[in-house]
Amino acid sequence: MAYSVTTPSNRVSLYSSGLEPVFGRLFDQAFRDFFAAGDSPEQSLRKLTMDVSETDKGYLVHADLPGIEKDAVKIQIDGPRVTISAETRKTDEKSEGGKVIYRERSSSQFYRSFELPAEIDATAAEAKLENGVLTLNLPRKAQATTQQITVK
């Protein structure tokens, strides 16, 4: 492996490539997001990250809900539209003879609404929350078939 020394003469080529401002903005945004205050109102509603895959009978959704109890999850199905929302509440800790010095864990809300290519059979849909991952099994609604009736 060879090492190179950046000198004033070859530093110009780094800046003239046009990539330095792009990477600079990406780094600044990542730095701001990492150190952003978690208690601010714009940070309290977080986008739910998920994976959606298609199966023979419908769709399978895996969504990350870290620290959420299953009673706090709400799932709505309206035709092909699926809405998932969840909320955690900050618990007020009371300690005898002491006080909370530093708190980073707070309340947060997750929300995601998306539309699938086919209507979902809401009566046959199943949801399971295990280890902070919500698994949805969303079967497609049976398509209405046209039938021909013979005249007697």
From TrEMBL:
It holds the Pfam family HSP20. Keywords: Stress response. PROSITE patterns: SHSP. InterPro entries: A-crystallin/Hsp20_dom, HSP20-like_chaperone, Small_HSP. The keyword Zinc does not apply. Residues 39-152 form the SHSP domain. The keyword Ribosomal protein does not apply. Gene3D superfamilies: 2.60.40.790. It comes from the Bacteria. Belongs to the small heat shock protein (HSP20) family. This is Heat shock protein Hsp20. It comes from Thiomonas bhubaneswarensis.
